[in-house]
């Protein structure tokens, strides 16, 4: 029988995770509501403070025995995440592009049923789900700091690890801890920690859902796991269009499993109503808004009116013409590469390799934020083969959890772009789930698999840190040269990217010159920084 102290400890860890999830989802929902009803600016700016207050209140209502230390621990984690988020600047093209466009626009105004956001990326930022943007915009409105919004990546990564640890209660501390670390260190999440990309957040939300379902129905976990399960469902569904599909599949699966195994989800009517209201606030724009404006809910990424070449232009025609299963197999088992589809000298298809081998190009490519082929890491193909072998050795556990494994496997192939790692972070979660089953059966294969996954994620983290350090150093040197050690004014030729956070971080004065005025800068000393032309008056 499990010791009471172990159950209490697992519940306390879960309470910290719930606090973090309520803070993220609550802050985003409150900011969306206040901006949507056009509340005074000071009210909208208070959304993060209100979100933390709501999280603390729920904690004290749910778990008075350890509410104080749970609240303190969660608040410290939030503050630490906000501090860590500012270590590196977001150098990614999407982060400087449509994510920055959306966050700055939402910080100023928002309408529930109208496409009112402006900018070069208006078609996307008006029609995409917005929970991460609401969160970042609320912090931008409160602090004036654009980079703090990246803290969502750190907070959700921590929450996914804590939920995993709690869901596996009953197991010894070492395998639980290894499993929690392994799940949290999803390579997609690691590579996007210092960006405004949202795929790392999706990895965390899906991990939380999957581990909560496992804990609820197969591991005699706390009934309170239903709370992070539903919070993560809301988070994923309002993060990306695909998240709505993934969450719908997981919710339907959880409901069916609950009925079959006669285990209730265990959430009261008041809690369900509050979660439903939160989902409505976050989902009205874009899903209902798109319908009101005469589109469908997944506009403009698919169906009538979709943006052409949104995906096909990201890879070679030869690879794009293959079926999704072949694409996925080649991407997983091939070399980690970011080939230019327009360069005919590069391979047209992923190059297959021996498992557990890594070449020099793979090492440097593994740190990229958006690797096209083999983006799960250079050792992931070998890890997948090892996971299959461990599933054979742990066949009793695999057979017992077959319904959940089948659901996760469907999630891994349901998207036509399942070959693209950042669009399929759940494949890593599937391998982690097989590792957990092996660990719980005390199989050596489980420990081997965890070790391979950690080394794989470590390679990506190391190379990513080097890339960001080098990029930060180059930007500092380049802007110092142009500005004559900050004495000259920089003139920025704005195309599509938003470099203002970079100028703010480096304490540089600048004047914005739009595309039509770029010609006047031709005779000035200039440098191309992050895709933009930046010049200084001679």
UniProtKB/TrEMBL annotation:
Keyword tags: Membrane, Transmembrane, Transmembrane helix
UniProt keyword Transmembrane helix present: yes
Bilayer-spanning residue ranges: 12-37, 43-61, 68-89, 121-140, 152-171, 177-194, 201-219, 225-251, 263-284, 376-395, 402-421, 444-462
Protein name (database record): Glycosyltransferase RgtA/B/C/D-like domain-containing protein
């Amino acid at each position: 029988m499990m010791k009471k102290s172990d159950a209490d400890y697992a519940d306390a860890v879960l309470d910290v995770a719930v606090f973090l999830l309520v803070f993220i989802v609550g802050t985003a929902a409150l900011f969306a509501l206040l901006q949507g009803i056009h509340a005074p600016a000071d009210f909208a700016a208070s959304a993060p403070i209100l979100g933390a207050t709501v999280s603390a209140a729920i904690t004290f209502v749910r778990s008075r025995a350890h509410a104080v230390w749970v609240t303190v621990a969660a608040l410290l984690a939030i503050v630490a995440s906000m501090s860590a988020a500012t270590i590196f600047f977001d150098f990614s093209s999407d982060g400087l592009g449509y994510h920055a466009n959306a966050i700055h626009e939402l910080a100023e105004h928002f309408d529930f049923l109208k496409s009112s956001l402006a900018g070069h990326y208006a078609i996307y930022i008006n029609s995409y789900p917005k929970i991460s943007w609401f969160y970042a915009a609320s912090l931008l409105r409160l602090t004036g700091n654009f980079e703090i919004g990246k803290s969502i990546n750190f907070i959700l990564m921590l929450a996914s690890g804590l939920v995993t640890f709690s869901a596996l209660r009953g197991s010894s501390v070492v395998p639980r801890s290894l499993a929690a670390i392994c799940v949290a260190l999803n390579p997609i999440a690691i590579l996007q920690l210092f960006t405004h990309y949202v795929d790392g957040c999706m990895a965390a939300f899906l991990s939380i859902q999957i581990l909560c379902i496992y804990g609820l129905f197969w591991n005699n976990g706390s009934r309170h796991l239903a709370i992070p399960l539903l919070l993560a469902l809301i988070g994923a569904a309002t993060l990306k269009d695909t998240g709505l599909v993934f969450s719908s599949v997981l919710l339907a699966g959880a409901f069916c499993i609950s009925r079959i195994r006669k285990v209730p989800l265990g959430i009261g009517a008041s809690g369900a109503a509050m979660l439903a209201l939160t989902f409505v606030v976050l989902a009205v724009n874009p899903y209902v808004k798109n319908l009101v404006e005469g589109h469908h809910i997944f506009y403009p990424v698919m169906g009538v009116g979709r943006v052409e070449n949104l995906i096909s232009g990201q890879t070679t025609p030869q690879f794009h013409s293959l079926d999704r299963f072949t694409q996925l197999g080649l991407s997983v088992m091939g070399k980690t590469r970011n080939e230019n589809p327009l360069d005919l000298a590069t391979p047209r298809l992923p190059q297959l390799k021996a498992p557990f081998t890594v070449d020099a190009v793979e090492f440097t490519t593994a740190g990229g934020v958006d690797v096209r082929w083999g983006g799960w890491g250079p050792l992931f193909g070998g890890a997948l083969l090892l996971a299959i072998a461990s599933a054979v050795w742990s066949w009793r556990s695999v057979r017992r959890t077959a319904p959940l494994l089948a659901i996760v496997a469907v999630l891994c192939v349901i998207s036509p772009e399942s070959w693209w790692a950042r669009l399929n972070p759940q494949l890593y979660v599937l391998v982690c789930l097989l590792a957990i089953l092996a660990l719980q059966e005390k199989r050596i294969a489980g420990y081997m698999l965890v070790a391979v996954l950690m080394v794989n994620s470590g390679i990506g983290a190391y190379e990513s840190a080097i890339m960001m350090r080098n990029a930060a150093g180059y930007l500092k040197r380049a802007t110092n040269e142009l500005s004559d050690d900050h004495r000259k004014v920089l003139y920025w030729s704005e195309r599509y990217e938003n470099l203002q956070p970079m100028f703010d971080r480096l304490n540089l004065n600048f004047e914005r010159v739009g595309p039509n005025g770029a010609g006047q800068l031709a005779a000035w000393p200039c440098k191309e920084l992050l895709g933009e032309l930046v010049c200084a008056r001679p």
